[in-house]
Amino acid sequence: MQMQGDLDISMVLSAFFLRNIGLWITDYPTEERRNKIMIIYTIWNSIFATIVITRDLYFTVLYKGDILYVITNILTVTMGLIKICIIMNHKEEFMKLIVYMQQHFWNVKYDFREKEILDNCKKTCTFFVCSVTVMGTCAILAYLTTPLIANIGKNKSERAFPFNMWMNLPLSVSPYYEMIFIVQTISTYYVSVSYFCFDNVFCILAIHLAGQFRILRYRFAKLCDMERRMKENDMESSLTKHVHVFYEKLKTCIRHHQTLITFCDRLENVYTMLIFGQVLVFSVLICLFAYQGLLAGAPPARRSIFIFLLVGSIALLFMFTYSCDGVIEHSEKVAIGAYSALWTIMPMNKSGKMLRNDLIMVIERSRRVCCLTANKFFPVSLETYTTILSTAVSYFTLLRNRVEDNIVN
Questions:
Q1: Would you tell me which of 38, 131, 160, 373 could form a disulfide with 147, CB atoms 3.0–4.6 Å apart?
Q2: Residue 341, strand partner residues
Q3: What is the mean pLDDT of residues 212-232?
């Protein structure tokens, strides 16, 4: 299915990467077959990368190598594989969320203020998605250029790979070296794309959901708009005449509110396990990235890998916690819009009383905020971001002190 309307850069980038891994909307059987082939190829590359890194961990422990470096790599690769498995388990619902957003969030007629809110959401998504994508791309390039820089001045028998193969074969000799290097490059690309592209889509979905709550709040606030009615001489008769029109508009807003709550529940169902995994692992990953990039006595090329990963992980963590926090904030503020609906000037006839009672129900429901949780354990917000960073700093301090103690002893 082709996305219609004025697409922002964030969705263009996300669609590009999703097509590459075989998880995009299709219209024709040939596209569906291509997607199946691509998703199989993506999973194969992720499994291949996981096996290579696991073997690297085994031999690194056996020969007492740089264990922290390998642990950092295996956590990163494993997270990419886990993410794609979770999304594949909810593939149909994942696609429906994207289609629903395109049909009901974008291809809808808005007034100037509502269009302004939508454009603001697109700008925010573009900033976050571009930032994370650039950092991810830089990390891929750093992984691939590090062995090339290390190979300068060495014999062909000593050439290094992006990831150690640990095989008693002449892999460093041409053409086997070039073949293995290309295979590892492709695997690195697919693992990296699997690592950040689903988070980019989550950011787009969550930020636009928060934007729809802002639009709904605005519609509630202007529900009983009397700008046109004020020109009439008999205000009381005018209100009596049009109160049923306001009540019909209120019912439309309530239906919109219900669909947004349902959309939030569907988004929660798809992403809750993925969010939970990231919350658990991110503090450790940020700690290891910071140590490898700032303190480890590694060559500058290798340290650049983890500097990009560190900045990218902090940006990605802020991106999805900010998105979740926006859903909480703006779903609660719908109550403010409902209270601002000029209900006090409505007549106390049947329609006027029903309008007041339904506005009270909207306010009460809005107090039960919509939120996205980490596997139902706790809601994710910007407070989660500060907690994870604080934990990562604590881990970093402990790791640095432990390494310094080992050096002294």
A1: 160
A2: none
A3: 73
Beta carbons of 183 and 301 less than 8 angstroms apart:
no
1-15 burial string, b = 16+ CB within 10 Å, else e?
eebeeeebebbebbb
CB 201 within 8 A of CB 14: yes
Confidence of residue 156 (pLDDT cuts 50, 70, 90): confident
| Cβ–Cβ < 8 Å for 49, 191 | yes
142's torsion region: left (phi>0), alpha (psi -120 to 50) or beta?
Answer: alpha
Strands (DSSP E) found in 87-229: none
Q: What is the pLDDT of residues 243-275, one digit of tens each?
A: 777 778 888 889 999 999 999 999 999 999 998
Place of tokens 């500058």: 300
Distances (CA, A) of 297 to 44, 304, 404: 34, 12, 12
At a CB cut-off of 8 Å and minimum separation 6, what does 376 contact?
A: 272
CA distance 7 to 4: 7
Distance CA 209, CA 219 (A): 15
CA distance 325 to 347: 38
Q: d(Cα 89, Cα 269) in Å, to the nearest integer?
A: 11
Block residue for tokens 């900033």: 127
CA distances (Å), 298 to each of 138, 146, 285, 305, in order? 18, 11, 18, 11
Report the alpha-carbon distance of residue 48 to residue 110 in Å, rounded: 48
**pLDDT tens digits, residue range 115-143?**
999 999 999 999 999 999 998 888 888 88
Alpha carbon of residue 192 to chain centroid: 14
